[in-house]
Amino acid sequence: MGTLTESMTRLCGEIVALRGARLNFVRDLGRDVADLKGEFRRAHNDMAQRSRAERLSFVKTLSHEVASLRAGFRKAHQHMARQTKAERRAVVNHLKKTVSGRRREFALDLAGAHRVWFGPTPAERRAQAEAERRARVQAEQAEAAAERERMAALAMAQEEAARHQAAVPPKEEKEETGRPGKKKGRDFPAPGDPQP
Questions:
Q1: Alpha-carbon gap, residue 160 to 154, rounded angstroms
Q2: Phi and psi at residue 137, to the nearest 5°
Q3: Count of beta carbons in the 10 Å neighbourhood of residue 29
């Protein structure tokens, strides 16, 4: 065999060996890529499950926080609503009292001005006349009652005096003898007598 044949044989053997190596390489590469893709798939599934669990946990925590925040807002809003309602009611009550007081003052002022300008109304005149009539009647009744009491007291006094006179015998008139132990004609004045 010649060198050319040897070279060709060797070249042919190298080509066959390289083809086999290429096939092995491609097969190994396919296997490695399939293993890598399988690992990627498994890692992706694991990561998806973990991230899904984390997302669910995050959403759950977030929903709890939002719910508690909304509950706090609701309580604060209710408290603020009650407080502002009470404050508004107090302001309105104060305003009503103030306005009613001023309206009353103004009405009294207007009524006074009307009375000064036009005089008392017929109803007021009638009421005043009725009050005066009642006062007169009460005064007359009081006088009559006082007179009746005075007459009753006088009658009782007269009856008492008559009973007293009937019980006591009449006294005989005695001569004036003066005081015992004193003389009729005295030489010195008594303490109550006028001095000469």
A1: 10
A2: -60, -45
A3: 11
Q: What is the CA radius of gyration of the chain?
A: 69
User: Tens of pLDDT along the chain (196 residues)?
Assistant: 678 888 888 888 888 889 889 899 999 998 999 999 999 999 999 999 999 999 999 999 999 999 999 999 999 999 999 999 999 999 999 999 999 999 999 999 988 888 788 887 788 889 989 999 999 999 999 999 999 999 999 999 998 888 888 876 656 555 555 555 555 555 555 555 555 4
Cα–Cα distance measured from residue 104 to residue 99, given in angstroms and rounded to the nearest whole number: 8
pTM comes to 0.36
Which among 85, 104, 105 is positioned nearest to 93, based on CA atoms? 85
